[in-house]
């Protein structure tokens, strides 16, 4: 019996980078770092070396990145550290789901990873709501097709835009407001951001349900998912590791596929 590999899964976002080591689908350890701390190739060499040398030691690496400029640095840093070159998740990876986007290459790797794990875990139809720099909703059909999604500004982006494009509205650090109706400018802004995003997510999910003709399972992820879930009629599960788990599923398919002759891109 072939023993499951130890995989290092790295999710590179615009704001932060998450990494986890998996043995099979068992999450062994995880860590996070700000993307701004990993701009240079030497930064990646140092960090990936540190991650590789911790016990247990991963032998393979799979990456999802929505920051294309960092891909060459990640590739070069990984080459000499792992048994094989890194696998960058794309629409051509062995996802286990179909991609119905008009141009599949336009779908973010993180969104594909989310869809992979959501379908494996919940089946379809299912929707992943990811609260990040941008908020995304991604739909996976009953048949296991990534149908597409919806992209909207994230809460922090919206707050920054309010401050930047108005003369009198202040910069605000986000937190859940004490009440719906704000009694001053800051609490009014917080109320609009918090209840506004919950209402918009629920409204979009209502519309998706009308399109589908059936109720999807809904899973939330991202920094504000648990907070928004408290005001949402739809979000039933929050999983902050969904992208890393989806990456792991793809990484395992790549690893086992090479054992049986699967060839990437065919």
Folded structure, characterized:
The chain has 266 residues and is an alpha/beta fold. The protein folds into two domains: 6-88, ATPase, nucleotide binding domain (Nucleotidyltransferase, domain 5, 2-Layer Sandwich); 100-239, Nucleotidyltransferase, domain 5. It is built from seven helices and eleven strands. A six-stranded mixed beta sheet has the order 6-9-8-7-10-11. The protein has a five-stranded mixed beta sheet with strand order 3-2-1-4-5, covered by helices on one side. Helix 6 (225-229) links the parallel strand 10 (217-222) and strand 11. Helix 1 packs across helix 2 and helix 3 (109-122) crosses helix 7 (242-259).
Determine Rg (CA atoms, Å).
20 Å
Mean pLDDT: 92
CATH architectural name of the largest domain: 2-Layer Sandwich
The CATH top-level class label of the largest domain:
Alpha Beta
Largest sheet geometry: 6 strands, mixed
Oligomer: single chain
For the record, the count of structural domains works out to 2
Principal-axes shape call = globular
What's the arrangement of secondary structure elements?
Layout: E1 6-12, E2 16-23, E3 26-34, H1 41-52, E4 60-65, H2 71-79, E5 87-88, E6 98-99, H3 109-122, E7 126-131, E8 134-140, E9 145-153, H4 155-164, H5 185-212, E10 217-222, H6 225-229, E11 237-238, H7 242-259
Helix pairs in contact: 1-2, 3-7
């Amino acid at each position: 019996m072939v023993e499951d590999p130890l995989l290092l899964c790295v999710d590179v976002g615009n704001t932060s980078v998450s990494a986890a080591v998996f043995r099979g689908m068992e999450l062994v350890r995880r860590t996070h770092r700000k993307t701004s701390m990993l701009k240079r190739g030497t930064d990646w060499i140092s960090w990936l070396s540190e991650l590789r040398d911790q016990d247990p030691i991963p032998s393979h690496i799979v990456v999802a990145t929505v920051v294309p400029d960092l891909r060459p640095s990640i590739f070069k840093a990984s080459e000499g550290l792992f048994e094989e070159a890194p696998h960058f998740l794309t629409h051509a990876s062995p996802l286990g789901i179909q991609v119905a986007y008009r141009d599949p290459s336009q779908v973010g790797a993180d969104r594909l990873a989310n869809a992979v794990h959501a379908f494996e875990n919940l089946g379809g139809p299912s929707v992943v709501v990811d609260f990040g720099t941008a908020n995304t909703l991604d739909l996976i059909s009953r048949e296991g097709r990534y149908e597409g999604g919806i992209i909207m500004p994230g809460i922090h982006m919206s707050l920054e835009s309010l401050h930047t494009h108005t003369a009198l509205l202040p910069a605000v650090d986000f937190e859940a407001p004490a009440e719906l109706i704000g009694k001053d400018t800051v609490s009014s802004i917080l109320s609009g951001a918090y209840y506004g995003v919950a209402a918009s997510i629920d409204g979009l999910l209502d519309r998706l349900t009308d399109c589908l003709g059936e109720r999807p399972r809904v899973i939330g992820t991202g920094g504000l998912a648990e907070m928004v879930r408290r005001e949402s009629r739809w979000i039933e599960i929050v999983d902050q590791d969904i992208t890393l788990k989806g990456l792991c599923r793809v990484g395992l398919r790549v690893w086992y596929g090479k054992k049986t002759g699967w060839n990437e891109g065919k």
